[in-house]
Amino acid sequence: MGEYKLLLEHSHDPAYATLAGYQAKGGYAALKKALGMERQAIIDEVKASGLRGRGGAGFPTWIKWNGIPKDKKGKHYLICNADEGEPGTFKDKQLMETTPFLLIEGMTIAGFATQGDAGYIYIRGEFVDAAKALRKAIDEAYAAGLLGKNILGSGYDFDLYIHLGAGSYECGEESALMSSLMGERGMPRLKFPHVPLPTISGVWDRPTVINNVETYTCAPFIINNGGNWYASLGASTKNSRGTKIFSVSGHVNKPGNYEIEFGTSLMDLLEMAGGMKGGALKACVPGGSSVPIMNAQQCDGAIIGYEEMAEAGSMVGSGGCMFLNEHTCIVTFIWRTAQFYANESCGKCTPCREGTKWLLQIMERIRSGGGRSGDIELLQEVCSQIDGRSFCGLGDAAAWPVAGAIKVFRDEFEYFIEHGRSIVQSAESARMLPESPVVAVS
Ligand SMILES: Cc1cc2nc3c(=O)[nH]c(=O)nc-3n(C[C@H](O)[C@H](O)[C@H](O)COP(=O)(O)O)c2cc1C
Ligand code: SF4
After folding, report:
1. pTM (predicted TM-score)
2. How far apart are CA 102 and CA 214, in angstroms?
3. Binding site membership of 67 for ligand 1 (Cβ less than 6 Å)
4. Which of 22, 191, 377, 422 has the maximal Cβ count within 10 Å?
């Protein structure tokens, strides 16, 4: 299967980022249609579409929208998670820069369906171009009566704000994002079942829908064409419907964002990206740096779908797909990943705060040639103490890559510990590897 361009169909046309250009391609027909529908009917279409959140967890979108109280007793809010901090993922950035009205229209439809008063697009601080494109588009939408008071004469009022974060990975975690949005430190909060879901008590303790950029941009297509049409895409998979954008990077000839229909094979995705560069396929991290790494055998025959990728040994995640060639040192790749998570841990809970540093220190020791027998087991033990025992998902995200790599590439760890150097000795890999400071570990 080749590319299936739905969200990205017009992303290479600069006019599509203007209101006139967007409307010329059918933009805002979905909002007009939605404003004439019962709110529940919109949610039912989203249910029929089978849309699952594109931020990483794949949670059914309609359940969130349906969870917002129908008897409105105060303000309702929407949040768009545009933090996109997962290493390897850059699809939301492109969507915001090239198709800003899709996001705005999608959020307005979601707002109408859930009786939202205002929406906040929480954008990662480094995404200046995306924020500028959205600012321009939001201003145009206000001027045309597509945002603000009495949208298109429907009586529905909806305001949309942009909030720039400060570039913290943890602020992509939804409860930390809400804390940050409210002006607090970007740390996660206690969650369901200990406290109500965000749909009941989210930002400013009000009912809140929080979805990823790509998730909201699907809404206009679902309303225009119907949920059943959307669900016909990906119908060959167990429970993954529609399209998904994968940000393909690593040792490929044509890195970039590729939109595919669920059910496409991972090897087809690699082909779309121009195939491998500099050597044969050795490994793939298909869904962003936090998901388990796959070896070439696992990649062969892997089908892209939430359940299918789990069966193949990894996850769809956020769609940050990194292909690595045969000259890649997996130990170094994992060391770099561990460094990222240790840096990004917010420090609130002990398993993650301490565990991510220990993982990094042990990886550092191995990589600097001082690995000890028992280090692999020690890494596994630390991973098992972090995974499922941390306050938020960052802990799991830090443990999975290390535990996953040991499972699939254990021989590379053993070789490094025994010989004090990588199993991969090519000049190319030596150039690729950044220097690491040696950290003493007792
Ligand atoms: C550490 C961490 C970072 C996250 N970063 C992001 C992010 O950058 N963007 C995103 O959409 N979701 C991110 N998520 C997932 C969000 O918490 C949340 O599940 C998502 O925004 C829900 O939207 P969706 O249902 O449309 O996927 C992150 C989760 C964790 C644990
Ligand atoms: S797992 Fe704990 S320390 Fe790590 S980011 Fe979440 S709350 Fe912070």
Report:
1. 0.95
2. 9
3. no
4. 22
